Amino acid sequence: MDINTNNMKLNLNKSKIVEKDEKWIEQDIIVPDNMPDAIKIISISSIPYINDIEINNGRAKVVGKINYSVIYRANDDEMNIRGLNASYPYTVNIENSNIKNKEDVVVDSKLKNIIYSLPNERKIAIKNEICFEINIDEKVTVDIIKDFQKCDDIEFNKCKNSFNNIKERKRCIISSNEDIMLPKEASAVYEILKVCPRIKDTEYKESYNKLMLKGIIEISLLYIGENRNICNEKVEVPFSSMVELENISDNSQFKIEYCIRDLNVRINPDIDQKTLNVDFKIESNVTMFEMEEIEYIDDFYSRTRDLNYEVNDIDIAANRYSSEKEINISESVSDIIPENHRLIEYSLDTAGILPVLDNNTIKVNGVAKLNIITQNKDTNELENKTIDIMIDQSFPVEDSWKNSNVNIKVKDVRLNVIQNGNNLDIKITIYLEVNVENVLKINSINKIEDAPIDLKDISSINIYVVKPGDSIWKIAKKYKTSMENIIRTNKLENPDLIDIGQKILVIR
Question: What is the dihedral of CA 110, 199, 220, 421, to 10 degrees?
Answer without folding.
Answer: -80
